[in-house]
Amino acid sequence: MAVITLVDAVLIGIALAVIGVPLVIPRATLVFLGAFIPLVGATVSGAVAARVALITGSVGEALLVVSVSR
């Protein structure tokens, strides 16, 4: 399970860096730790990343983050 969460966090971190969302490393760490919480962890951490993208960027960036985190 740890390998799957690590791969998920790395891929989402790369996607966030490409999209241009700030604080990529803390967001990827949040995704990694959140993935260990069954059912809601990945969804909540993805929502946090989308909210940061919405606040610091645009609606388009937030939608891209949502599509990547799903």
Task: Write a structural description.
The chain has one domain. It has helices at residues 2-19, 24-34, 41-56, 59-69. With 70 residues, the chain is mainly alpha-helical. Helix 1 (2-19) runs antiparallel to helix 2, helix 2 (24-34) packs antiparallel against helix 3 (41-56) and helix 3 packs antiparallel against helix 4 (59-69).
Strand count, sense and barrel status of the largest sheet are:
none
Cα shape: globular
Strand composition percent: under 5%
Number of domains: 1
Order of helices and strands: HHHH
What distance separates the N and C termini?
18 Å
Helix proportion range: over 70%
| Secondary structure category | mainly alpha
Number of helices: 4
* Contiguous uncertain segments of 5+ residues: none
What is the CA-atom radius of gyration, in angstroms? Answer: 11 Å
How much is the average pLDDT?
Answer: 86
Layout of helices and strands, plus pairs?
Elements: H1 2-19, H2 24-34, H3 41-56, H4 59-69
Helix pairs in contact: 1-2, 1-4, 2-3, 3-4
Concise summary:
The chain has 70 residues and is mainly alpha-helical.
